Amino acid sequence: MKKNTKIILGSVIGIAVLGAATLALVLTQPESDNADSGTSSSETVSVTDYTTDDISTLTISNESGEYTINRLGKEKWGIDSIPEALANSSAYSTAMSSAGGIGAKQIVEENATDLAKYGFDKPTATVKMTFKDNKAEDITCLIGIKYEGENSWYVKTDKSDTVYLVANAGVSFAMNSELSYVNKSTLVAAYDSENDKVNRVRIERKDLDKDIVLDKLPEETEKEFSSTYVAYEMSSHNNILADDELDKKVIYGLFGISASDVFAVSPTDEQKKQAGLDDPNCTVTMVSNKETVTKLTLGSAVYTVTKNDETGEEIKTITGYYGMLSGKDAIYVFSPDSLPWLTATPENMLYKLFLTPYIYYLDGVTIYDSDRKAYDFTITGDADKSSFTYEGKKVDSAKFKAFYQYLLSAYAEQIYLDDLTGDNKFIAGVTYDHREEGKENDVVEFYASESDRTCIIVVNGDVRYKVRQIYATRLLENLNALLSGGEIVSEF
Length: 492
Known about the structure:
The structure is a single chain. Helix 7 packs antiparallel against helix 8. This protein has three domains: about 35-180, no CATH class; about 200-350, no CATH class; about 360-485, no CATH class. By secondary structure, the protein is of the alpha+beta class. The chain contains eight helices and 28 strands. About 20% of the residues lie in helices and about 35% in strands. It has helices at about 1-25, 90-100, 170, 220-225, 245-250, 270-275, 395-410, 470-485; strands spanning about 45, 55-60, 65-75, 75-80, 105, 105-110, 125-130, 140-145, 150-155, 165, 200-205, 210-215, 230-235, 240-245, 260-265, 280-290, 290-305, 315-325, 330-335, 360-370, 375-380, 385-390, 395, 415, 425-435, 440-450, 455-460, 460-470. It is elongated. It has a nine-stranded antiparallel sheet. A nine-stranded antiparallel sheet has the order 23-22-21-20-25-26-27-28-24, covered by helices on one side. An eight-stranded antiparallel sheet has the order 4-3-2-7-8-9-10-6. Pfam families: DUF4340 (PF14238). InterPro entries: DUF4340. Keywords: Membrane, Transmembrane, Transmembrane helix. This is DUF4340 domain-containing protein. It comes from [Eubacterium] siraeum DSM 15702.
């Protein structure tokens, strides 16, 4: 019996201590925890109850400043400083409907006398509504401090001293800045594969030796590469071919582009200078469809700064770049992930297999050795029935096909655009004689590079690429093997 008595007494004492601790906690925070408020937290209490149709103006004041949303017509609103073409109409609608229908989780205190403890002496935000045709009396809502425990805010109106607890979602619109009503998404219409055609993209960037210009291949040329990933050439770099799998974002990236933030609307010269747009780092110009020109100008980087807890060192991370789009009088912030033009180079868009004519689209192939002696091979027939001859004599079909496959295996390992000099000795050459009437021959020549163990590739008179010198050396070895009955070596 004594043992049980001790347990009961211990429990009573524990409850008393817990109750005292709970009371102490309640006494140290606003009366939002008061269960005697008369309203259950599961119910919703109306703070404001107005139809958006009746609201004439909505004036919001917060740490970012003050602005007014005006009714412009039925279900149409605007801010004077934001041109209609730049506005996000759905953001206006959300703000108006949210302001007109603020619902509280509970009443915290009626006839509150100490309003400062709820933050109403210095409100986080105020929301003032006026109404058309005097359908209601003007009203101002004050948002006080945040009650972190429930991610909610203390709210009251200027009509009474009743304090409400409103969920963050119900008043978050009041924390928005004026610029949050500027549209940031799909600033250029999304790409339509049926109707949109990109004719040219030009990249101007401070770190480039020369602009990169990508031009759509002529229709007839594009057909030759229909089985490959080639539709554009770099006309700025001796017409070297671009790989569609590597240049896709560069070509089509302006379509559907969105911003992550807005820096300024109708920017001043000073704001442009502040954003680095008085001296742009990069400019992208796209010509599409019937000469539609879209231009993106990029300025300075936007950083976030964090501090290393151990060393105290500040760490700067690029989170975006300031930019302006043609036809949009605003400075936006764009995420680095949406800006492939900042890192694009000719090398990382290069299509390496630069010339791959189909064997049965040719009447013949001529090989030149280092003395420029010509070896003419004739091609007749098609994939079903064909023959190959040299000096009137048939050549083994399997060996010739293997040799031809080796010819096509030449690929650009790097771009090289310098003029040839007398030190660049001719090593070998190939002429492709096209069967199609009127189509000019393609000529590929290989010259020794004195600076490294590579050879320079000249295509139709244009210096374009480099490949390891062993390719040209093995080409001549394989030519000898083809003529003497030896084995064709495919690797180099």
